[in-house]
């Protein structure tokens, strides 16, 4: 991985166990959003799906990780908390810690989330579907809300423009409401001028009305905005209804 700020790398894609509180902050969610059918893509080890279902939503997570045995996945999520914490301990200056208090607070939140995820995937494996962008195993317009965090833009060093546009079109295909993507910077904290501006133009041409919205959350420096797509008027051919 070529991280342009310092040249250091976290290595393989990190399977993160983000908490529902983090999801609410980075996607500007309130209880009214957590109704109907909701997709988390990629879900990783997050406990968001578990809590959303507890609140009455019909939530599903999708991730290539879920091809593995549920018990193996549960342990892997816990192991990845330690790998992520080690990375952050060595790169503290890349982050703002006010949301968590400090590194230890962040680790506690992530571990609690991983533990809840582990319990839920063992109890409700049907909520966790194996699949990967840019091809998802769902029919058109399945979900009222689609959330995607820390894949697109984050891993821009290895996922090119074509992948981004194909993935965003796919997220919109399976949505009948809106799609929210966070963050819009890469791991170095940089907005990629080779990605976001041309993506906005192409997404507009597809009738997806892309908007960049600031959110009240910034952990990684510069990561305080999400991309919102409106899939409610999108046809399967990628154009909008008149």
Looking at this protein, list some descriptive labels:
242 residues, alpha/beta, Rossmann fold, 15% strand, disordered C terminus
Account of the protein in words:
The protein has a single domain, classed as Vaccinia Virus protein VP39 (Rossmann fold), CATH 3.40.50.150. It has six helices and seven strands, in the order αβαβααββαβαββ. It has helices spanning 20-26, 48-54, 70-90, 103-123, 161-173, 196-205; strands spanning 37-40, 58-62, 128-129, 143-149, 175-182, 211-214, 225-230. It has a seven-stranded mixed sheet with strand order 3-2-1-4-5-7-6. α3 runs antiparallel to α4 (103-123). 40% of the residues are buried.
Secondary-structure blueprint:
Layout: H1 20-26, E1 37-40, H2 48-54, E2 58-62, H3 70-90, H4 103-123, E3 128-129, E4 143-149, H5 161-173, E5 175-182, H6 196-205, E6 211-214, E7 225-230
Parallel strand pairs: 1-2, 1-4, 2-3, 4-5
Antiparallel strand pairs: 5-7, 6-7
Helix pairs in contact: 3-4
């Amino acid at each position: 991985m070529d991280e342009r700020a310092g040249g250091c790398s976290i290595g393989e894609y990190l399977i993160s166990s983000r908490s529902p509180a983090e999801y609410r902050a980075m996607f500007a969610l309130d209880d009214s959003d957590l109704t109907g059918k909701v997709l988390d893509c990629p879900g990783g080890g997050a406990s968001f799906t578990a809590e959303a279902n507890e609140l009455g939503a019909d939530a599903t997570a999708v991730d290539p990780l879920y091809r593995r045995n549920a018990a193996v996945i549960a342990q892997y999520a816990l192991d990845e908390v330690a790998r992520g914490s080690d990375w952050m301990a060595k790169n503290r200056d890349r982050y703002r810690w006010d949301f968590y208090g400090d590194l230890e607070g962040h680790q506690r939140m992530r571990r609690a989330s991983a533990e809840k995820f582990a319990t839920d995937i063992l109890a409700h494996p049907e909520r966790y579907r194996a699949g990967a962008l840019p091809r998802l195993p769902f029919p058109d317009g399945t979900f009222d809300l689609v959330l995607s965090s820390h894949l697109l833009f984050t891993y821009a060093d290895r996922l090119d423009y074509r992948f981004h546009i194909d993935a965003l079109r796919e997220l919109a295909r399976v949505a009948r409401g809106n799609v929210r993507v966070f963050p819009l910077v890469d791991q170095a904290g940089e907005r990629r001028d080779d990605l976001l501006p041309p993506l906005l133009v192409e997404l507009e041409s597809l009738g997806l009305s892309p908007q960049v919205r600031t959110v009240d959350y910034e952990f990684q420096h510069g990561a305080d905005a999400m991309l919102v797509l409106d899939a409610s008027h999108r046809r399967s051919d990628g154009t909008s209804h008149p």
